[in-house]
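Subject: NADPH:quinone oxidoreductase family protein

B.,
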Amino acid sequence: MQAWLCENPTGVDALVWKDLPTPQPKAGEVLVEIKAASLNFPDLLIVQNKYQIKPPLPFVPGSEYAGVVAAVGEGVTNLKVGQHVACLSGTGGFATHTIAPAALCMPLPDAFPFVDAAAFIMIYATSHHALIDRAQLKAGETVLVLGAAGGVGTSAIQIAKAAGARVIAAASTDEKCELCKSIGADATINYTTHPAPNAFREAIKEATSGKGPDVIYDPVGGDFAEPAFRSIAWRGRYLVIGFTAGPIPSLPMNLPLLKGASLVGVFWGAFARNEPKANAAMMNELAQWYAQGKVKPVIDRTMPMAELKAAYAHMGSRGVKGKLVMVNPV
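Prediction pasted inline below.
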């Protein structure tokens, strides 16, 4: 097998494409022949030693992937050789093969392409858990999605629309705003031309007829968090997804008090570990939504696995719309 190996987590440049022995699965594990693997923000942080999970060195990055089961370990009864699966195991995806816990593998129907499957679990599980479970989103409510043209942002738009909500999408270019409209956003805010704090707040006020959004979905953080929270509706729910802008914002604690609003943390990985039955039910519903056409990953582009460093550079340029997916030769 071949894999991108991180022997020293000092950044993308330290990754090396290496030939490695193909491992055999142990009890409870499967060997997956990887067909596609998506690039997520945590994949950048983990090779910089900045992610909350720090795997033992050396490791193969790539948190999310899809492929074919090539071998099964002892005691694995829910999967068989030749079965198509998607998996989010945290590491191992940027390779031709990987060992995955069988319990983390999502069986795929034949009509679920590998590229879509590799871009599915992280963003849709995060957004469904955030909007449906944590925010208890109701039909007719208004959702403001920050970073709306990215992977989690595009999934949030689709899930909010599937729940019957009105969606305002905030993104950094007119092109990204048009993408958001094409997948269901009812209104958009270009926060480059409406910068935080004042112009951004005015744009939110105009888009909500002065009421403010009922739910704010924020994977960005940075300078947008406080003006967005100041714009929230009475009894609003502010979903803390992540901090792709870099700085972790500090909010004055009087703001939730004045708005009767909730600041809600969203950590899908911990939810999946602590509430496995609820997570399994959610993933089953999401698979059904995909089959029904309610959700479909937005794929910015596919690139050969060997061009991973160029893919990281493209993601770092903030030009990605939706998801970047690395593919192995057929």
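The first strand starts at residue 2 and ends at 5.

T.
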